């Protein structure tokens, strides 16, 4: 079965650089969620999109932005990177309606800022 | 506000013994509860969920969890642990009062590291 695809799997950036993370949800899933998991931390919700519109916003820094495109894939753009942005970034997708309370997570993108 | 507590940072159990990983929650409405497992440098893998119905939920790899509304708990259990069960386990909650998919973020506990020794 198709899963949530995230790219790249690993990314190394220097401070003050920009990074773009991509997420391809499961086909027919209409909602995408982004989470950030710092070292030894629980996943923290960043932002979500439903039908290409931002639906909820969590603890996402102003330096970060995200969008969902017409093909439902989503991108998380991170600018002016800081050392503290080093984390595992997860994308999850879900489908509303029948059985719509399941979330499928991608394998994550590990971002290292040096 | 919604929150999840996993009171134990670590749980150690011998292979073949039963295991329990504890989780308590706080939500405004009725909870939707989830357990996920994470292996090193990997994503979150779904184990099981409680939405409604039978309080005892059975999931993947022989895991089960019991929803207890009065104690606001959703402990993860397995009758006989395997060494391969060693991983980081996260409990998560969503508030059912979220309408449709306009909200629906999950709130995670801090995780419990399960170690099963041979």
Describe the protein's architecture and organization:
The complex is a heterodimer of chains A (114) and B (118). Chain A has 114 residues and is mostly beta strands. Chain A contains no helices and 11 strands. In chain A, strands 2, 4, 5, 6, 9, 10 and 11 form a 7-stranded mixed sheet that branches. A 4-stranded antiparallel sheet of chain A has the order 1-3-8-7, with no helix packed on it. In chain A, strand 7 and strand 8 form a beta hairpin. The model of chain A has no long low-confidence stretch (mean pLDDT 91). In chain B, strands 2, 5, 6, 10, 11 and 12 form a 6-stranded mixed sheet that branches. Helix content of chain B is 0%, strand content 51%. Chain B is mainly β. Chain B has no helices and 12 strands. The termini of chain B are far apart. Chains A and B meet through strand 5, strand 9 and strand 10 of A and strand 5, strand 6 and strand 11 of B.
How much strand content do the residues of chain B show? over 45%
Give me the count of strands of chain A: 11
**Strand-pairing-aware structural class of chain A:** mainly beta
Largest sheet of chain B: 6 strands, mixed
Shape of chain B: globular
The largest chain-to-chain contact, stated as pair and per-chain residue counts, equals:
A-B, 27 and 25 residues
What structural class should be given to the helix and strand makeup of chain B? mainly beta
**Beta-strand percentage range of chain A:** over 45%
Q: Evaluate the radius of gyration of chain B.
A: 14 Å
Fold topology:
The complex is a heterodimer of chains A (114) and B (118).
Chain A: E1 5-7, E2 10-13, E3 19-24, E4 31-37, E5 44-50, E6 53-57, E7 64-68, E8 74-78, E9 87-94, E10 104-105, E11 109-113
Parallel strand pairs in A: 2-11
Antiparallel strand pairs in A: 1-3, 3-8, 4-5, 4-9, 5-6, 7-8, 9-10, 9-11
Chain B: E1 3-5, E2 10-14, E3 19-21, E4 24-26, E5 31-38, E6 44-50, E7 56-58, E8 64-68, E9 73-78, E10 87-95, E11 107-108, E12 112-117
């Amino acid at each position: 079965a198709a899963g949530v695809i995230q790219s790249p799997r690993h990314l190394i950036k220097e401070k003050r650089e920009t990074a773009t993370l991509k997420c391809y949800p499961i086909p027919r899933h209409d909602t995408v969620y982004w989470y950030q998991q710092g070292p030894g931390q629980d996943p923290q919700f960043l932002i979500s999109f439903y039908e290409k519109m931002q639906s909820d916003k969590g603890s996402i820094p102003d330096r970060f932005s995200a969008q969902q495109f017409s093909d439902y894939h989503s991108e998380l753009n991170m600018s002016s990177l800081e050392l503290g942005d080093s984390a595992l970034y997860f994308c999850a997708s879900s489908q509303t309606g029948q059985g719509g309370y399941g979330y499928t997570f991608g394998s994550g993108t590990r971002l290292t800022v040096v | 506000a919604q929150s999840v507590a996993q009171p134990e940072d670590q749980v150690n159990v011998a292979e073949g013994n039963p295991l329990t990983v504890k989780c308590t929650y706080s939500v405004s409405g009725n909870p939707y509860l989830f357990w996920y497992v994470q292996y090193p440098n990997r994503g979150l893998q779904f184990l099981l969920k409680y939405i409604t119905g039978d309080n005892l939920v059975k999931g993947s790899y022989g895991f089960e969890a019991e929803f207890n509304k009065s104690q606001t708990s959703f402990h993860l259990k397995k009758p006989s642990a395997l060494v391969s069960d060693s991983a980081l386990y996260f409990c998560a909650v969503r508030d059912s009062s979220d309408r449709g998919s306009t909200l629906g973020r999950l709130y995670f506990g801090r995780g419990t590291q399960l170690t099963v020794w041979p």
